[in-house]
Amino acid sequence: MAAEKNIPMRVVRERTGLTSRQIRYYDQVGLIFPDRSRGNQRLFSEEDIERMKKVKKLLEEGFTVEAIKGKLNQPSLLKDSQEKIVSDWTQRLNKGDLSSLLPVSGKKRLKEKIKRSKE
Predict the structure, then answer these.
(1) Which of 22, 29, 38, 74 sits a CA distance of 20 to 30 A from 55?
(2) With 80 as the cut, is the pLDDT of residue 2 above it?
(3) Interior CA angle at 63 toward 72 and 50, to 5°?
């Protein structure tokens, strides 16, 4: 289900620390995808705000716009698939079915997820 987009730009500015110009730029280059009101004002969701915070951080770290698009525009199907794999391996690890994580691609990420799930 898509998040409701009803947050105006002034609230987004306050919550992200971004300027109106920066927000318009993120929209222009395809980093964010706001809806529009009848008066053509941009409207955002909570997910959009979190995405803008990530974009801001990545830009501050020196990533290019294209690199950020690549990082943030992963298909959700891939993310769902990765989450299922992590869940399956976590269950196997908890049951004692695993003697090694070696056959898992992205072993570091899996270990981090497992560690967080136990906390």
Answers:
(1) 38
(2) no
(3) 40
